[in-house]
Design brief:
It comes from Bacillus methanolicus PB1. The chain has helices at residues 6-35, 52-75, 81-86, 100-116, 120-123, 133-138, and strands spanning 88-92, 140-144. The chain is mainly α. The protein has one domain (6-144).
Length: 147
């Protein structure tokens, strides 16, 4: 199969970021309204007050990320909405079915590491293999859908 290059993957990521951002904004609005959470700032430090509201919104954000980037692609043949729009998908290198654990390794653990090392893990996808660090960690690759 023909592996997808860096540019098309970046395009899919951009589309997903916009969709995820809109959904996250709506979810946070609902959570803040239901729980009566406001953006409290510590007047001395100028930082947000750490409290139950911040914990609840961060937990809701993490759960949404698990649903959108991990669970949904497992159910939809390795595709998020951005990948569907660009005609690419994630697959395992051994051609077995994607699992929740495989996508968790790729999207949460692998991408966290790729980010922590100054995005070098993402830039690896510019190489000959067209695989980022997160792909190597999860034993996945991003390929074009057969037309």
């Amino acid at each position: 199969m023909n592996r997808a290059g860096f540019g098309i993957r970046l395009g899919a990521l951009f589309i997903d970021a916009v969709i995820f951002g809109i959904i996250l904004w709506i979810l946070e609005f609902i959570v803040r309204s239901v729980f009566g959470i406001s953006d409290q700032m510590d007047p001395n430090a100028g930082l947000p007050v750490l409290g139950a509201g911040l914990i609840i919104t961060n937990l809701a954000s993490f759960i949404l990320a698990l649903i959108y980037y991990v669970w949904y692609p497992v159910l939809s043949n390795g595709q998020t909405f951005g990948k569907k729009f660009t005609g690419i998908r994630v697959k395992r290198t051994d051609n077995r079915d994607l699992t929740f654990w495989t996508m968790f390794l790729r999207e949460i653990i692998g991408k966290l590491l790729s980010t922590l090392i100054l995005f070098i893990g993402y830039l690896m996808a510019l190489g000959k293999e067209k695989r980022g660090l997160h792909d190597y960690i999860a034993k996945t690759e991003v390929v074009y859908i057969k037309q």
